[in-house]
Amino acid sequence: MRNIASKLALLAFFIAGIAASSIAATKPAARAHGLDVAGMDRSVNPGDDFFAYANGHWFKTTVIPPDRSNYGVFPALGEEANRRTATLIQQAAKSKASKGSEVRKIADYYTAYMNEAAIEAKGLKPLESELDAIAALPDKSALAQFFGRQLRADVDPLNNTNFHTDRIFGIWVSPDFDSPNRNAAYLLQGGLGMPDRDYYLGTDATSTALQAKYRDHIAAVLELAGISGAKERATRIYDLEHRIAEAHESRTDSEDVHKADNRWALADFAGKAPGLDWKRFFEGAALSTQPSLMVWQPGAVTGIAALVEKEPLADWKDYLTFHAIDRDSPLLPKKFLDENFSFYGTALTGTTQLFPRWKLAVDATNAALGDAVGKLYVRRYFPPAAKAAAQKMVANIVAAFANRIDHLDWMAPATRAKAKAKLDTLYIGIGYPEHWRDYSALVVRRDDALGNRERSELLDYREALAKLKKPVDKSEWWMTPQTVNAVNLPLQNALNFPAAILNPPFFDAAADPVLNYGGIGTVIGHEISHSFDDQGSQFDSQGRLANWWTKEDFAHFTAAADRLAAQFDRYEPLPGMHINGKLTLSENIADVAGLSASYDGYRKAYGEKPAPSAQGFSGDQRFFLAFAQIWRSKFRPEALRASLLTNGHAPGEYRADTVRNIDAWYAAFDVKPGQKLYLSPPERVRVW
Asked: Which pLDDT tens digit goes with each residue over 467-499?
């Protein structure tokens, strides 16, 4: 995964979603083994605004930290995980670990990143070889080979996590759509400095203002580097990126796996995407021996290739020069980092203060040596008892999900059998991977911060390519244990639940089980449900892209999904800006289904009876309130706008209101017709 410390304000828009937390904005909200009743606003009718009822006082009194664009449970737990990780890394840095050991590499990577004086003294010298290579490019064939050498490993476009957008293309290596026992290389669109095509194509006042700020940012970076004609070059660079954006496929189209199922033989590229010297590109990318690639966004690949031929070589050189500098800004003199943050942090997301250097260094070290740090994290913070407790809850919720499948009155026996087979073969990783990554080939130098990052990215790329010659490892993890998140991997039919998310308010071994089912249980149910959402439902028990539904069953499922998309389309978080129900559909389906499955699991854990009352609430009320409180979130307007444009997850408050689709919520809070969240029984979306 790319080190994107320079774009930290965007990191919250990752897989599990965006949430919120404590008033002090430094630690996750402590609920003393119970609900945070003080954070509620009981003057609000739960049937009108359940998020505000569960979180209203917290929302009114919470101040977003100046180095954050949003805050909530996920960022707060991330803060705690970062503090723990920082302690481990700093202890490693002070240790006398032997040269070449993982602990020594952790220490040296972190130390090099923290040595701002050395970085300042070197100036642009660490970039000289790359900048010189760009300046010396003689023709478009050499340019194509350079693009190939720049290719780096991306991660899971099914989860909206393509981070290498500012490189012309990215590659993702994962199980083959058609043959899930072998890996395939998926070519992805790239080439943009702003987060998404819509930032370039928008014509409203906010979009045009950001476009102007981005042009100014490009010019400022070139001026800081002492490059002449910065403003004129910036205009040409921006215009080139705008044309790339016009060629890009939308987020919604990119999530349609059937549109991504395009196998091109290497010999086909010249005819299907003329304009780029593909032979030289594949040579540069070390892909010449591959018989074929899966082209995820064929229209973008064709459009970008045409632009390579059409646009002047000089403009491409300027484009590459700018992105080389901007991409490496955290590891260059402070003036470059400050300028980078002024755009990616303040202009894009409203964040007013850059993260402290130690946080940037922790993120960078985790990105480069995540499993090595993860070993230390698990050893100290994730005891075997915690893993066993989580595994027990997972087994209970899987059983509840299976029971729900058995009782779907609309599902034909043939479809039901295949759904059960998919559930039976689901791999669920808890806490940490079964096989740790080997970093013996990574060279880390205590005095070479930028070189360390480049060597780490190159190792990631080479290891991704090496998987093309190996059988699929279904137990492969795509997250580190110290990551506060969870993920479903449809092509592997697998789930990952890192250790760091298995903490309060999601999971608390001392709390009543009902609260854990309302917290982490709904996340577990959510991730299981991803195997059956609008994307996951298109993959069979082996991870193969295959239709395993009867025509009537899929029509029923699609109709329910369409109604859920329409439900979210009506939400308007900002004036004139609605949630994109199609873009967020996968997550919304998983929320509804996961909440339902975890509710069933909670009742099963209590012998099909409600949990005892406590803190003034019934057992069922406690379950739903625990769910709503994990979705605490608060955004700066700029960050909320960015999320609505690019994030596959709805903002937290609307995820909390998912309860309006669950019958038991109506009974628990006596919700009546006429209240704002009320849906008549036929209007409630029942997916699984």
From this structure: 999 999 999 999 999 999 988 888 898 999 999
The Cα 546–Cα 492 span in angstroms is 14
Half-sphere exposure of residue 185: CA atoms within 13 angstroms, side-chain side:
29
Mapping DSSP to helix (H, G, I), strand (E, B) and coil, where does residue 197 land? helix
Distance CA 321, CA 134 (A): 7
Q: How many CB atoms lie within 10 A of CB 63?
A: 11
Q: Is the pLDDT of residue 570 over 70?
A: yes
Strand ranges across the sheet with 427-431: 427-431, 494-498, 487-489
Domain ranges of the chain: 5-80+384-426+493-683, 125-331
What is the radius of gyration, based on Cα positions, of the chain? 25
pLDDT 10s digits, 291-330: 999 999 999 999 999 999 999 999 999 999 999 999 999 9
User: What size, in residues, is the chain?
Assistant: 688
Cβ neighbors of 507 (< 8 A, separation 6 or more) are 386, 389, 390, 501, 516, 519, 520
Nearest to 7 by CA among 456, 341, 338: 341
What are the DSSP calls for 302-366, one per residue?
HHHHHHHHHS-HHHHHHHHHHHHHHHTGGGS-HHHHHHHHIIIIIIHH---SPPPHHHHHHHHHH
What's the pTM value of the predicted model, to 2 decimals? 0.86
The β-bridge relationship of strands 70-72 and 633-635 is antiparallel
Mark residue 25 as left, alpha or beta (left: phi above 0; alpha: psi -120 to 50; beta: remaining). Answer: left
> CB of 655 within 8 A of CB of 65?
no
User: What would the two tokens of residue 272 be?
Assistant: 């299907």
Q: Are the beta carbons of 331 and 449 closer than 8 angstroms?
A: yes
Q: Does domain 125-331 have CATH number 1.10.1380.10?
A: yes
Contact call for residues 172 and 155 (beta carbons, < 8 A): yes
Judged against a pLDDT cut of 80, whether residue 15 lies above it is answered with no
Which positions ≥6 away from 627 have C-beta within 8 Å?
Answer: 518, 519, 522, 595, 656, 659
Q: Which of the two residues, 198 and 6, has the higher pLDDT score?
A: 198
Q: Compute the average pLDDT of residues 567-588.
A: 94
Query: Which has the closest alpha carbon to 544: 157, 174, 292?
Result: 174
CATH topology (fold) of 5-80+384-426+493-683: Collagenase (Catalytic Domain) (3.40.390)
Question: Directed axis angle between helix 551-569 and helix 585-605, to 10°?
Answer: 100
